[in-house]
């Protein structure tokens, strides 16, 4: 049994989705970012945090990688070329989609108001569109890494959903179709119900 700390409308969604996909039991503690409960577990105040017995794992990607390796699901085996390729796509998503969206969020509501520069968002939307178009060209199967769904797909679709919510235009039809197919998965739908 795992305990997940965080609210589903954050990157916690990714971890909950993975747990639903692999059928692992978990409890959800809907703690807010930077709350005393979270900062006691993660000095950065970021969610999600995964409790495993008496240990804690932070960062959604680290948590999903741990779960994938532990359960042998949604990941290629460690030490294989397929895993290295999966990790490369995962890091590309974190660098080119997630980081752009996070920067926009920081300049929208996270940073102190006097530190925000809302004008940067137009540049970020342009950057996101170009990165998304290049990503779409890499899709070589129903999933980002071919015929097998991996944690990269969870990160990607979560970022695409985040982009839509942040009013970043998603004009690439290949990516839109890919995301629509993944959103139809039952595990995604169960977590989406938690987030509403």
From TrEMBL:
Residues 1-75 form the GST N-terminal domain. Gene3D superfamilies: 1.20.1050.10, Glutaredoxin (3.40.30.10). InterPro entries: Glutathione-S-Trfase_C-like, Glutathione-S-Trfase_C_sf, Glutathione_S-Trfase, Glutathione_S-Trfase_N, Thioredoxin-like_sf. Pfam families: GST_N_2. Transmembrane segments: none annotated. Residues 79-196 form the GST C-terminal domain. PANTHER family: GLUTATHIONE S-TRANSFERASE GSTA, GLUTATHIONE S-TRANSFERASE-RELATED. This is Glutathione S-transferase family protein. It comes from Ruegeria spongiae. The lineage of its organism: Bacteria, Pseudomonadati, Pseudomonadota, Alphaproteobacteria, Rhodobacterales.
